[in-house]
Design goal:
Elements (H helix, E strand, L loop, with lengths): L3 H12 L6 H14 L4 H13 L8
Protein name: DUF6104 family protein
InterPro entries: DUF6104
Amino acid sequence: MYATDRGIEELVERRGEEQVSVEWLADRLRTFVDLNPGFENAVDRVASFLARDDADDPED
């Protein structure tokens, strides 16, 4: 288990039943970067990963 898995597990535990929009997620990521500018590159990489996640899916 990676150290980041703890945060992911907490997210699933606390909010696993919720439905959220991409707009809401983008707003939360922006707020996080505003509060933690040192993580800007990591958040940018995660956002790009999520944006492109299904781009190569042959079933779409």
